[in-house]
Amino acid sequence: MDSLMKDSINPVPQPLAAKPSFTDKKFLTTMIFVTSLFMLWGVAITMGDVLNKHFQHVLSLSRTQSAFVQFAIFGAYFVMGIPAGLFMKRFGYKNGVLLGLSLFAIGAFLFVPAANTASFGFFGVALFILGCGLSTLETVAHPFVASLGDQRTSDQRVNFAQSFNALGAILGPAIGSYFLLSHNVAGSTDLTSVKMLYLVIGSVIALIAIAFSFVKVPPLTDPHAVVANGDAVNVDLAPGKKLFEHVHFRWAVAAQFFNVAAQSGTWAFFINYGHEQMGFSEATAGTYLVLFMAIMLVGRFIGTFLMRIIAPPTLLAGFALANIVMCIIVAQGWGWPSFIALLAINFFFSIMFPTIFSLGIKNLGKHTQQASSFISMGVVGGALFPLIMGKVADNVGIAHAYYLPIVCYLVIFAFGAKFYKVKH
């Protein structure tokens, strides 16, 4: 059966106007639902950073142990990446979204028995299932939103949807800090707030899934079709090559692995840094985490504008170098100068994920969906790196742990400076 059997595909788009539209009216309802998915997984992932600190408090965990929050979520991305891609190929975008939302809701509901037993292992299972849902949504949503209209404006739609992901990254720590950190009592082991918060989240996600099940998805646009003016989108320039023979794709997988590794480690211990190095209360540090995510949103808009005058790979390499400098300053523990450098990391991080993703799938033609799954699996770096940073933080202090992401940014710099190039 052809890919996306449940979602009708128009193999040849209709004649196009000189200036293609952002999307078509018939796709508007679907576009709203799919764009909301970007925000939802942004909320869930960044709320995990608040859970990391909250579990240190109520379950008496070390920083190394609490890093298993990120291990469970991002580990699920590695496990679910290929199955989600295969499911999408077999059953279509809409059913892929419904699968992702269902797993998301089930994982959230499992927080209730996990809280009742006060078992960090049980929380790990719930987070893993929730992470499988997030992985499925992320694997499906990118090509889904790209297919909702003219392919010459697909990048605009993806960047628009990614802006809502950044909004979700702001809402996640804001919600988590208010419900989980602002009411912390020293020595308390009460998990009621965790249970109630995720019960509400699970209910909201379940309602969204039910509503989306009634949405009729119009016939979509084939992302590899030749459009009316003769231009082709993402045509494989080396059709004789297998996927892993494309050097730029292999480097993109590596760059994404280290990119998410750096991101997850930096985010996971942001509250710890504010609390231990700056003397903030946990709630105040959580409030700064909201600002931290807002800076990423600003960086995404500014970065998108800069790409009009600076080639994306060049900008990617420049931002990687900037973050190397920021990490060195953060690791010195100089008070406000170091904390401002820590905030700036998210500005320079902002364009990295979507830029690496788009460069990695460039000119892969029929391999694009498979390549998307593998690049998404690179997110497993976010499962491993917080464990290493947590171990270093437990032994030599939280500030010095921020030397570690420098290795990640060196790999990203190499990809942006040289290895992004498509070879025929």
Break the fold down into its secondary structure elements and pairings:
Blueprint: E1 9-10, H1 28-58, H2 63-66, H3 68-91, H4 93-109, H5 111-117, H6 120-146, H7 154-181, H8 192-213, E2 220-221, H9 247-268, H10 270-277, H11 282-306, H12 312-332, H13 336-349, H14 352-360, H15 368-377, H16 381-396, H17 405-419
Parallel strand pairs: 1-2
Pfam families: MFS_1
GO molecular function: fucose:proton symporter activity
Subcellular location: Cell inner membrane
The best one-word shape is globular
> By helix and strand content, what is the structural category?
mainly alpha
Spans of 5+ residues with little confidence (pLDDT < 50)?
Answer: 1-5, 12-17
Task: Report the portion of residues in β strands.
Answer: under 5%
What's the tally of helices?
17
Q: Helix coverage percent of residues?
A: over 70%
What CATH architecture of the largest domain would you give? Up-down Bundle
Largest sheet: 2 strands, parallel
Q: How do the strands line up in the largest sheet?
A: 1-2
The CATH homologous superfamily name of the largest domain equals: MFS general substrate transporter like domains
The radius of gyration over CA amounts to 21 Å
Tell how many strands the DSSP assignment holds: 2
The overall average pLDDT, rounded, is 85
What are the secondary-structure elements, in order, as H or E?
Answer: EHHHHHHHHEHHHHHHHHH
* Terminal Cα span: 30 Å
Q: Oligomeric status of the shown chains?
A: single chain
